[in-house]
Specification:
Arc Repressor Mutant, subunit A; about 15% strand; three-stranded mixed beta sheet; alpha+beta; about 40% helix; 6 strands; three-stranded antiparallel beta sheet
């Protein structure tokens, strides 16, 4: 956290969302997180879920990707630092991957066009072996 930044309040709702995210293996939208919390008996409003997930994404506690529908989906990742994801379009199974070739390619493309301090996000979507077999 940067100097002067205020730590987020550790509310009961934030703790419930954080605990749920730690237990999930795949990306979930705010609505899916809200539904899972309700099923677990946690009373957290949908707007609180949206705000909390956004704050957690901004602080690096969870990763966020855009689904094919353009909706944000969140996941607590085991790899900290820059990495990518391979996501099953059918079941949502997610594998964390690193890609040094992608990093080199992005830097080279940036140099070719006179850009510096290149950042990127790369998510690969396909069918996992189980879904492809069925």
């Amino acid at each position: 956290m940067s100097e002067g930044a205020v730590a987020p309040r550790r509310t009961k709702q934030r703790a419930a969302i954080g605990a749920l995210m730690e237990d999930l293996a795949d990306f979930r939208t705010a609505q899916q997180v809200h539904e899972a919390l309700r099923e677990a008996g946690d009373r957290v409003g949908l707007s609180t879920v949206y705000r909390t997930l956004q704050a957690m994404a901004e602080s690096g506690e969870v990763d966020v990707i855009r689904t094919a529908d353009g909706e944000s989906a969140y996941r607590s990742c085991r790899i900290h630092g820059h990495h990518h994801h391979l996501v099953c379009r059918s079941c949502g199974r997610t594998v964390e991957i690193s890609g040094p070739d992608v990093e080199d390619w992005a830097a080279e493309i940036g140099r070719q066009h006179g850009f510096r301090d290149i950042g990127h996000e790369l998510e690969l979507f396909g069918l996992c072996a189980d879904c492809a077999a069925s």
